[in-house]
Amino acid sequence: MQLPKVPRKRVAVAHTDHHYPCDACGGDLRFAPGQTRLVCDHCGHVQDIPAATHRGAAQLQELPLAQGLAQPSPEAPTQATADGHSLTCPNCAASIELAPNEHATQCPFCATPVVIDTGTQRALKPQGVIPFMIDENAAREALALWLKTRWFAPNGLAQFARKGRRMTGVYAPFWTFDAQSQTRYVGQRGDYYYETRRVGRGDSSRTERVRKTRWSHVTGRVSRMFDDVLIYASRSLPPDHITRLQPWDLAALKPYRSDYLSGFSAESYTVELPEGHTLARAEMLRVIQSDVRRDIGGDTQRIAQIDPHFAAETFKHVLLPLWTAAYKFRGQSYRFIINAQTGQVSGDRPWSAWKIALAIGAAAVIGALIFYVSR
After folding, report:
1. How many CB atoms lie within 10 A of CB 200?
2. What is the model's pLDDT at position 323?
3. More confident: 366 or 19
4. Is residue 12 one of the residues assigned to a domain?
5. 327: Cβ–Cβ under 8 A, 6 or more apart, which residues?
6. Domain contains 248
7. Three-class SS of residue 188?
8. Is the dihedral of CA 40, 45, 46, 49 positive or negative?
9. Please, what is the average pLDDT of the chain?
């Protein structure tokens, strides 16, 4: 698959906005989580997404990494790009402003979902998307259950989150990287052995076993095929929050269609491909080091040198679904993220000061009772 050429000269770009009218009543269609359908807000009419049901639909393709890295970097954005996009709602004609990195939203006046062509200011458009599998109610229940299992969470926060608090469905940008690696290494293998020695003097002397290590020089080679190393391609959410949402079932990726974005927000990537590749290489090297230690064997290992070589490197730009929520509760702000494929929850860890103090006090009382009984 040929990557699109990026013009070197700055040119005006026409944005194409997508609005999905119902065939039955002309109302607004939104993607139905967990299904391959668009559902009308007004009459409930259902329309299938063509790519989900027709044979011969476009298939996901890995793109050559070298070709992607060779693309010229996007020039400094124009004033319109820096300030965001402006479009006219196809339903009520209101003027809608989108942030620079957004390409899906809904009209704030009539709630019409609108999707702009992705990547108009980016060299690379999404190849794939995982559609939303759980709806907002299920996400809210998953969050409430997660909060209930936080022992030191403030009382009432779970109920507060469950009672009709609004969540936002957003497609987050990711890179995936594939590579075949061959790595030569130099190191040392350590094998434990034990010696018995006597310590102490006279009647108080005793014998003990002392562990020692016998080191031997080793060299070798390991190979590893990396498939879909996943890198978050935005800076909007904390990386540790995103990591705790794993694993994703990337086998569920569908070829990208704007239909899946209808009714949700979507963010363009802000971590460029070269930076994403650097982060992926770091993940790969951590795996390779584990492979080397396993190949060296023994009880412990020392790695003096590794020389990895990568071949057949490819990548994809994909969108993955999240439900996000931010609540202000008793003066404190909490941010939560739900994996909209699996229901896995991550977020700010809520703490209750009085619960912690109560637990410390209870531990002190129990400790005092044990001491008293032992005396």
Report:
1. 10
2. 92
3. 366
4. no
5. 157, 160, 161, 165, 333, 334, 336
6. yes
7. strand
8. negative
9. 75
The pTM score is 0.72
pLDDT per position as a tens digit, 204-224 = 778 888 899 999 999 999 999
Residue 76 has a pLDDT of 33
Tokens standing for residue 172 = 């987050």
CA–CA separation, 333 and 288 (whole Å)? 40
Token pair of 17 as six digits: 């906005």
- Angle 326-330-336 (CA atoms, 0-180°, nearest 5)? 20
Polymer length of the chain: 375
Instruction: Decide: helix, strand or coil at residue 205.
Output: coil
The Cα 4–Cα 124 span in angstroms is 7
**Taking 80 as the threshold, does the pLDDT of residue 306 lie above it?**
yes
* Closest C-alpha among 192, 208, 209 to residue 200: 208
Helix (H) or strand (E) segment spanning residue 338: strand 332-339
Is 371 within a domain? no
Instruction: Write the DSSP assignment of 106-121 as a string of letters.
Output: E-TTT--EEEEPTTTT
Say if residue 56's pLDDT is above 50: no
Q: Please compute, for residue 205, the number of CA atoms within 13 A of its CA located in the half-sphere on the CB side.
A: 7
Q: Are strands 128-129 and 206-232 parallel, antiparallel or unpaired?
A: unpaired
- Here the tokens at position 298 are 């023994």
Instruction: Give the domain extent around 152.
Output: 26-180+223-286+313-355
The answer to whether the beta carbons of residues 188 and 217 sit under 8 Å apart is: yes
* 297 found inside a domain: no
Non-local (6+) Cβ contacts of 35 within 8 A are none
Tokens of 283: 């993940």
Cβ atoms of 24 and 38 within 8 Å: the answer is no
The total number of structural domains in the chain stands at 1
Cα separation, 156 vs 163, in Å, equals 11
Three-class secondary structure assignment of 266-326: EECCCCCHHHHHHHHHHHHHHHHHHHHHHHHCCCEEEEEEEEEEEEEEEEEEEEEEEEEEE
